[in-house]
Amino acid sequence: MGFDLIVKGGTLVSEVGFARSDIAVRAGRVAALGKKLDERGARTLDASGCFVVPGGVDAHTHFDLPFGRTTTADDFKTGSLAAACGGTTTILDFATQERGRPLKQALEEWRRKAEGRCHVDYGFHLAVVDLPESRLRELDWAVRAGCPSFKFYMAYPGRLMLDDGAIARAMLRLQDIGGLASVHAENGGLIDVLVRRALREGRRAPRWHPLTRPPAAEAEAVHRAIVLAEVTGCPLYVVHVSTAEGAGEIRRARERGLRVYGETCPQYLFLSDREYRRPGFEGAKFVMSPPLRPEGHPRRLWDALRQNWLQVVATDHCSFNYRKGRGASKQLGRKDFSRIPNGAPGVETRLPLLWDAVERGDLSPARFVELVSADPARLFGLYPRKGCLAPGSDADLAVLDPRKARLLSAKTHHANVDYSPYEGRRVRAWVRDVLLRGRPLVRSGEPVGGSPGGAFLERKPLGA
Ligand code: URP
Ligand code: ZN
Ligand code: ZN
Q1: What is the pLDDT of residues 123-165, one digit of tens each?
Q2: Which end of the chain has less neighbouring CB within 10 Å, N or C?
């Protein structure tokens, strides 16, 4: 039987490094790798001079997330298009429970939001914000419904935060049923006290956001989550680690043999708290939680990635416009930094930024593949369907052209948000072509158009 498509002449990048290999695709999957593949009847995609990487797996996005009475700037249509243009072909979004409502309702609602609107394949984590004893069985239901990973907020008291008892209860159940617990690790009670004091003292500008969320508030919460995970026997994934101390807690847990994993995001690697010193209200563009950190932290997070103390680079894409207009905007917090919607865009720039780190020698090509694709696929039950290019895997890939440097800018990005945290930054990687299950999503850096063809990824309970 012939092949449908051959990606030809590129350098394949995998977890073991570089290989000069063509990739043959049949019925949406990788059918063969090698040289001199039988081209009869197949279309070809010329990748000469380019790197071919497995499609990115972004394990942390927030599309169509309600905020007050409005929602994030990106929904599944625009967010997933931006993902595709940045070489990401799978996203895991957070179906977020409403207080007092069943988990089932959140999952059904997020499936409705994404159905027929997502350009890349997608799955969900369930963000649980309210878990009385009577709801515990709903965790079993969620795992059976293909959603075996959960997020618990240790911050945002009164809105999203679960107390330690509720998290421990959930973890005890999850370790029984093949679930993975993830945490937003910041000490919400302490932060609340610091925010109130700052406001009382008239400190209202964006630069007070990081000052009221100190690194110690993250490190303490990471440590506490690890204690809960160790005692309950539940595997733990710490999202958006922003500090050297947080990464250090994870390192020590892993050295003791615990099943503890960590994620960081490009904003904590490429940006620092200097952004909050921008003139006027500009710092609001960088108001996210946890906040950007002083210079020493990014350097140590790079070390943590290289040493496998952290396993994943995801984005936490949660976009709000800077200017007033459609949707919730950062301007909501003009007079009070604590009202600035938390979050920033990033789904489109993750692979270009990380590949640029490869080009400048900060990351090996193999580690790049692990961090942006293979390890998130593994941890969240998608490997080897996603996260690698081997016979039988989905033919999800990105062709990166290193000959064409690009300037990152809101003027050219595809996300539906009016700023880029990386405005004007030059990267030596251009995401030229992207395939999802063998179908072109992006050609010459632009979306090919057509109706969204992303599919829901029903995941199995997660093993050790
Ligand atoms: O500021 C952030 N990170 N917003 C998104 C929600 C979260 O905590 O991940
Ligand atoms: Zn979070
Ligand atoms: Zn998030």
Answers
A1: 999 999 999 999 999 999 999 999 999 999 999 999 999 999 9
A2: C
The CATH number of whichever domain residue 10 belongs to comes to 2.30.40.10
Ligand 2 geometric centre to CA of 166 (Å): 17
Q: 359 C-alpha to center of ligand 1: Å?
A: 29
Do 125 and 15 sit in the same domain of this protein? no
What domain range includes position 195?
A: 56-367
Pinpoint the alpha helices (H) of 162-288: 164-177, 188-200, 208-211, 215-232, 244-255, 266-270
Chain-centroid distance, C-alpha 209:
22
CATH number where 277 lies: 3.20.20.140
Q: Is pTM, for the whole model, over 0.90?
A: yes
Residue 361 and residue 316 share a domain: yes
Q: Is 367 in the pocket of ligand 1 (CB under 6 A)?
A: no
Q: Quick one: DSSP state of residue 291?
A: P
- How many A from CA of 62 to the centre of ligand 3? 6
Best residue among 293, 316, 319, 320 to mutate for probing ligand 1, ranked by most atoms within 8 Å of CB:
316
Residue 95 sits in the same domain as residue 151: yes
pLDDT (tens digit per residue) in 175-231 = 999 999 999 999 999 999 999 999 999 999 999 999 999 999 999 999 999 999 999
Q: Verify that 45 and 64 share a domain, yes or no.
A: no
Q: Which residue lies with its CA nearest to atom 8 of ligand 1?
A: 289
316 touches ligand 1 (CB under 6 Å)? yes
Q: How do strand 446-447 and strand 439-443 relate by DSSP bridges?
A: antiparallel
Q: What is d(CA 417, CA 419) in angstroms, rounded to the nearest whole number?
A: 6
**C-beta 289 within 6 A of ligand 1:** yes
For residue 291, the ligand closest to its alpha carbon is 1
Indicate if ligand 1 lies below 6 Å from the C-beta of 184.
yes
